Amino acid sequence: MIAKDLMYRFEQFASPQIAEKWDHVGLQLGNSFQPVTRVMTTLDVRPEVVKEAIEKHVDFIFAHHPMMFHAAENLDLSDPQNNMYAELIKHDIVVYGAHTNLDNVNGGMNDWLAHELNLTQTVPLLDGGIDPNSGELYGMGRVGILPKAMNTDDFAVYCKQVFNIKGLRLINGEPTKLINRVAILGGSGGEFYKQAVAMNADAYITGDVSYHVAHDMIAHNLVVVDPGHHIECVCVHQLHLLFDKWSTENNWQIQITESKVNTEPFTFV
Q1: What is the top-level taxon of the source organism (predicted)?
Q2: What is the CB neighbour count within 10 angstroms for residue 11?
Q3: Annotated binding-site positions for a divalent metal cation
């Protein structure tokens, strides 16, 4: 197969048209007509991930987060980020990024996160519009019901277990509240806490909550769990499963591997 085959099939699932306007999704680097034999799924494209890809003889990196959040100002290869680009080019590795289109699409990132929590009766947290591929309503985030109600402390412990993390931040806007209806939005979703309140969520799970926004959440009597941004690593395995399915359906002669590099930048001490 060629790289474009996988790109085309993925975009039938998660159209670039449903990505946020500020986002940069799609082909990040390389030639879309390059033959591909080994694909690696990853959350982030970092120098250590590229090193892993080279060692595994990968020729296509499929990532959730775009390779470039900020444009390169020069091509000084003493800069680790620039050198990473050079290594990708030197080893003929195609890079593709599926970011907010994967966050928005039904059956994508936020459904995967809701599934990890065993939420039922899920609906989108945000109203995104109509998916041009499916004709269905789509929207970022999910709101659903826990298997059983629990207090805030137990809920925080549950989130740690579900997402396999050693620590998180709990914004306990109403300590005596029982948590039953939960909103979740992968990545940085602090700005959308009012939508969680409007959807009658007892608790909201999202990453990268800022200090002043946390104060506002408390003022709204909202319980918020901030497990960090890295819980989106659920995509590494889920993308592998998707690609395996499509490979069988289309008789692609490729191997699919998952990155084993932990790109979580924070350590709990």
Answers
A1: Bacteria
A2: 17
A3: 64-65, 103, 229, 232
- For the chain, the first-to-last Cα distance in angstroms comes to 46
Name the region of 154 (left: φ>0; alpha: ψ -120 to 50; beta: rest). Answer: alpha
Task: Please check the confidence at residue 174 and state whether its pLDDT lies above 90.
Answer: no
Position 253 scores a pLDDT of: 96
Residue with tokens 């277990």: 161
Residue in the structure block whose two tokens are 């490979």: 247
Amino acid (one-letter) located at 188: S
Residue pLDDT, tens place only, 71-102: 788 989 999 999 999 999 999 999 999 999 99
Same domain for 11 and 113, yes or no, is no
List strand residue ranges (DSSP E) for 83-233, in order: 94-97, 120-124, 129-130, 137-138, 142-151, 169-172, 178-188, 203-207, 223-226
pLDDT at 268: 87
Residues sharing a CB contact under 8 Å with residue 70, sequence separation 6 or more, in sequence order? none
CA distance 237 to 172: 32
Structural domain containing residue 54: 3-99+233-257
Tens digits of residue pLDDT in 98-122: 999 999 999 999 999 999 999 999 9
Query: Considering the domain boundaries, does residue 35 fall inside one?
Result: yes
- Residues of each annotated binding site: 64-65, 103, 229, 232
Count of structural domains, the chain: 2
